[in-house]
Amino acid sequence: MIFGRRRPDPSSRQGLLIRWLEWVATAEVPQCPVRDQDGRYGMLRQPDDVFFLAGNFGGLTRRKVTAPTGTPIHVPGLVYWNAFEGAAWLPEGAYAAVFLDDAPIPLDHVELDPLAVIRGTEGNPVTEGTGRTKVAAAALTGTFTPEPGRHEVVVEGRAGAGFSLQVTYQLDVH
Hints:
mainly beta
């Protein structure tokens, strides 16, 4: 639920961001997809209608994952969330890009306003606790449906002084 209103359509830009945040927030701490160093947790708890990819908390990461043919892939190039102060925004000059086999994927600026209610597990990086928590978020996100075969997906983001991330996925689609 969006605080005070119903949740948006699950396939809308806001709906996908809420679902992505819950995908991260409901992971057991060692299986957090944002902390995943090689892709071993990237296929856990994936919904049937979309396949989520994740960035990282900074630095360089290489992952291997397999997604089902015909399933849209949704990935934030950069996402900020806040479960404590009631607002989230992308810093001035924030940059994000997602590439599929060197071709850029269009990204949308998505904000959760009003707040969304997100379920979480203890110690998760979104809500840091169990139960339901109001979360604000702002993100640059993209969705694409790759052809069957092996692909390279690169997620890049920069924000503020000194923060950058790059995740390179070997994405097998079949």
